[in-house]
């Protein structure tokens, strides 16, 4: 799931009491779509954002909002190390950024870093090619004047080679006839 964030959010409250296992919650009239500062969620349960219920109290619970329909939110309960508990009508609800969000972000960065580690680049002009699917390798810069050439006998399928001599053009530009 893609996590969504907003620097502006609207604090709201629960419109009705919810049990400790409810998967939908209703917030105060007219606040569902603005809860996340106007950021919307894509259909198909692919996006989410976190809200805190009973913010800054002993009953605080973090829930992931996965869909919004008017003022009704579809949620996954007990996120970010909290427990699912009952909340009464009027309990506060607000978009929050949690340590769980930071961990999610950090894990994504680590995954991206591992996909193509910096260590593969050792000198100016290095290129990355592959010897097989998901097997990147470094191809160092070629000699001045050489060109990158496809070569299926090479492990990476590429090599640096002397540029081919130009082919004599039997029709040089200066002798082209212009017709009308």
Task: Give a quick summary of the entry.
This protein has one helix at residues 99-115; strands at 2-3, 12-13, 24-26, 47-53, 61-69, 72-79, 92-95, 127-132, 135-139, 146-150, 158-162.
Which short descriptors sum up this protein?
180 residues, 31% strand, mainly beta, 1 helix, seven-stranded mixed sheet, two-stranded antiparallel sheet
Verbal overview:
This protein is mainly β. Helices cover 9% and strands 31% of the residues. The chain has one helix at residues 99-115, and strands at residues 2-3, 12-13, 24-26, 47-53, 61-69, 72-79, 92-95, 127-132, 135-139, 146-150, 158-162. Strand 10 (146-150) and strand 11 (158-162) form a beta hairpin.
> How many discrete domains?
2
Overall number of strands? 11
Tally of individual helices: 1
Order of helices and strands: EEEEEEEHEEEE
Radius of gyration, taken over Cα atoms and rounded to an integer in Å = 29 Å
Class computed from helices, strands and strand pairing: mainly beta
Shape: elongated
Approximately how much helix is present in the residues? under 10%
Beta-strand residue percentage = 25-35%
Q: Assembly state here? A: single chain
Low-pLDDT residue intervals, each spanning 5 or more residues = none
